[in-house]
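Reviewers of the previous submission asked for a worked example of the structure-prediction workflow described in the proposal, so we include one complete record here. The input consisted solely of the amino acid sequence. No template or homolog information was supplied to the procedure at any stage.
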Amino acid sequence: MGIPRLLNQFIIRAGAMFIVKLIGLAGRVILTRIVGAEGIGLYQIAYSFYGFILMLTSGLPTTLAIATAKAPKQGWRIFKVVFLCLILSGCVLGLSIFKNSATIGQLLGNPGLTYAIRSLAPSLWIVPLLGLIRGYLQGLKQIGIIALSEIAEQAFRTVFMLLIVGQLLSLGVERAVGYGLYGTFLGAFLSLIIMIACISLKKAEFPLNRAPDQLLTTSWFVNTSLAISATRLLIPFSEFLDALIIPDRLVAAGNSASEATAIYGVIYGMAVIVVYAPTLFIGALSHILTSQIVAEWQQGNQRKFNSLCNTAICTCWLWGGLTSLFLFFYSDELSYYIFHSDNASNVIRYLSPIPLIVGFREISTSILWAQDNRKNPFMGILTGIVCSIMVQYFLVAIPGYEYKGAALAILLLETMASIWNIKVLFFSKVNLKRVVKPLLCDLTFGICILLGMALSTPPSENIISLWRFLCIGVLFFAVTGGYIYLRCIRKFL
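From that input alone, the workflow returned the following structure tokens.
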């Protein structure tokens, strides 16, 4: 029996996201070793601002994907109009930020960010266009082209960034990191060329003449785009606020500006990257299921819709819980062998529940969006941000609580958003009781894994050898992956 289309798409998407994340992590590790904690702090602050601006249009690709899945012909017409609008608005925004980069750097609390902001400005023209094309292709289920373009973009971006930083390091960390961010534009530009070439070759395979289109109104597209943009904007907005609040509160706690930037770099440039890495698996699942569950919901196929949702939530529970255990037990090894430093080990341990919590947020948000429930994901994240800001402002400024306060703020944001979504789903038509029934079996498996990890790490060893750590990691993910396949993913077959 061949691999079903849905599972095949998931494998391609998950594999591409893994490669993209792996390239990004490798680039981040090399960059950290080149420029140090302060340099990676500058990089992260600049990218927080960039991500916030970029998310202003984040709802357009997802809405276009949903619209194209419902009505391919109308999706193409919408795509052409939005594409032209993005070209014009991107040029104006990019030029404005480029000219005012020094002022923006001052507002972000570090004049050295001027070079980084200026280098990222051209990307604000091309990256939204790239995302819009991917959204259209997602609606047509052309996952292969999307995957290839994402891998190419990340690879080119990372290579150019590291080459530029390495060549210009003699000019100082601020200039080297800043000019290195021109790699973002170069990666996106080359990826766009590759994507256009692939579309030209496979255009005949696009399902533009399949089932009859549904009527999609302009108001539906605008309202959906704004709702999704507002929801997705909240996370980058929170990260942008983190970049403003945390260094300032660290200075208030008695640290110098350089020390505050370095601490911020350890938290968001090292630990956060590691703990969020396992969420790419759930992100791939959510990305693939969005169009599928929209189709099932629109067709009124409640049984298939419930089956997809329950399987996704079950997979999220298992993968998130087990990888969280791995992060907690091996935080020292992850920090040392990835960054050649133990600075991030405690923060990784504090943030170890992130894969489980974020997984629930991702999947539950996709399910609610498929049901045209856009308000609750927005309100959940907004509530989490408010709580997070309060913790950051008061706790981070207390000497000795710099890392704990920042970690608690991140956990609180994700937890509030996840609880809000899950609470809504319990009162919707999604039957979550099916997830609870096999809970005992999952807990038993989790306890066995927990005991295995405890026995594999003798108390006398603070950090196990690299070879032993790699063997444990391979064995852990092989066993857990097999269990998840038998328990959940096999249902796709």
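DSSP finds 21 helices and no strands in the chain. We consider this example representative of the routine output the project will generate in years two and three.
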